Amino acid sequence: MPAASLLYATASERLRQHPPQRIGIMHALPRPELDALLAQAPEYRLQQYFRDFALALNHSGYPCHHQLDGQFDLILINPSKNRRQTLGWIATALQHIRPSGRIMLCLANKHGAKGLESRLRALTGQLISFSKSKCRCMYFSCGDIDHAELIPQWQEQAAMRQLAESGLYSMPGLFSWENPDPGSQLLLEHIPDVLRGTGMDLCCGNGFLAKAIIRQASGIRQLHLVDHDRLALDCARATLCEYPVPYVLHWLDASSEVLPQPLDWIVCNPPFHRQQEQNIELGQAIIQQACASLKHGGHIWMVANRKLPYEKILGQRLAKVDIIIQQQGYKIIHGVRR
After folding, report:
1. Which domains does the chain have, with CATH numbers?
2. Cis-peptide, bond into residue 262, ω within 30° of zero
3. Is the pTM of this model over 0.90?
4. 103 beta partners
5. Cα dihedral angle (316, 250, 228, 335), rounded to 10 degrees?
6. pLDDT (tens digit, 9 = 90+) per residue, 119-177?
7. Which end of the chain has fewer CB within 10 Å, C or N?
């Protein structure tokens, strides 16, 4: 049973015994058990920053929000893959939980459940924890906090900040949040500095490529930045706010939603993981969407792990595909649309 399913099933069992009036779910994930849980809740609010999960929840009839709002009797948290981000979410939850309310989390053992439990026990000695299906479920009451001084520390550690070395705005939980990804750095070295017209930074993250391109290319008319993570777009906005080039931020699932078009050029470092699991099809779907967004004669520059099978897809949709370089385990690919 996945951790999210166990979390929802455990909460559902507790609701039958002690029905709360209002439930909040942070990083809400679409699972069959969610239906049974929310059917028992008079009021609920789902929070999700990832576009693909938000779309799936919307399709099931559950509206998603970017923030919690108001006070709750029970808050469920599906932890992030980043520990600091998860602790920041817990600190946020404590601001929205009623005095008698509870906070509940569940995490797979292989994703660091033991470490998270240790951090929670530092917050409260009244933590209740049990294991099932290779996961650990944990919950505690708001009134049982022993070390409230940890809460602002967790918030500060999870907050957006400007990185001293790069000048980028970033935060824990984003892809390669502390330092630019080596693949993106290699890609930047091989993007020409004469880009013009309308372009797109696809899977833009905190805006590393976009910032560098704006600084070195003078002929850009408009720049589109696309990412599935709303928090990444918030950081990209802060990163680019001082630059005069018109840019547009798009919260989109690039694997399934229509992208801005028609474009003169695209730069892209596509993901090949969804959450903690490898998903090669994700990157392939994003590449297909990218090719469709180019003008005839438009260019794409992208970076990928050397082992990922992207050339065939590019070759089916573009007139020209070249591997510019293979280095450090990456390959830089350039393509031109028919």
Report:
1. 3-157 (3.40.50.150), 161-337 (3.40.50.150)
2. yes
3. yes
4. 75, 140
5. 20
6. 999 999 999 999 999 999 999 999 899 999 999 999 999 999 999 989 999 999 999 99
7. C
